[in-house]
Amino acid sequence: MLKAEIRIGLKKGVADPEGQNAKKALELLGYKNVNDVSAEKIFVVQLDMKDPAEAQKVVENMCQRLFANPVIHDYQISLQ
Amino acid sequence: MLKAEIRIGLKKGVADPEGQNAKKALELLGYKNVNDVSAEKIFVVQLDMKDPAEAQKVVENMCQRLFANPVIHDYQISLQ
User: Does the distance separating the beta carbons of A42 and B66 come in below 8 Å?
Assistant: First the structure.
C-alpha cells in the first residue's frame, strides 16, 4: 500500500483571500512580525498499489482531473 | 526571516466530509485502488523573526488562538 500526499497551492500572482484574511486576523490579534500568510491544501490518498512509478502516474492523473485547477493551482506529489 | 508551515488535520475519529467526497469523486471517475482520502490544510506564515525558539512559541500560540480548533484539529508546526 502506498500513501500519496498531494499538496496544492495557488500559482504565483493568483489572489489568496484565505491567506490574506488569516494575516489580517493575526494582526487584529496583536501579532506583529507577520510578513505574509498563504493557504494551501493537502489531500492524502491511500492507494492499494505497490509500484511507485505506476502510482505516481495515477496520482498525477488524479490531480489533472480532480484535485487541481491548472489555471490557478500548482501541485506537488510525494509518495511514501 | 523565518517560514513556519502549520499543517492542520482532523483528529482521529472526526468526520472528514471533504476527504470522503474526494474519494467518492475518484471512484466515479473510475479509479480503483483508492482506500482512503483525507483532506488537510496548510498555512505558510512568513515571520519577521530570527530566533527559532521564540518563533516556535509564537506560532504555537497562533495555532491555539486562530488556526486550529482544539476540539477537532491536530496541528504540526515546521520552521524553516
Answer: no
| pLDDT confidence of residue A33 | 93
> Domain total for chain B?
1
Rounded to an integer, what distance in angstroms lies between the CA atom of residue A24 and that of residue A36? 10
Q: Return the DSSP state at B14.
A: S
Contacts of A19 in chain B (CB under 8 A): 43-44
Looking at residues A37-64, what average pLDDT do you find? Answer: 96
Q: What is the mean pLDDT of chain B?
A: 96
| Structural domain of B35 | 2-79
Q: Give me Rg for the CA atoms of chain A.
A: 16
Complex ipTM: 0.91
Say if A79 is an interface residue toward chain B (CB within 8 Å): no
Confidence of residue A31 (pLDDT cuts 50, 70, 90): very high
Residue B25: give its domain's CATH number: 3.30.1280.10
How many angstroms away from the CA of B62 is the closest CA of chain A? 7
What's residue B13's pLDDT? Answer: 94
Give the DSSP H/E element, type plus range, for residue A66: none
Helix (H, G, I), strand (E, B) or coil at A12: coil
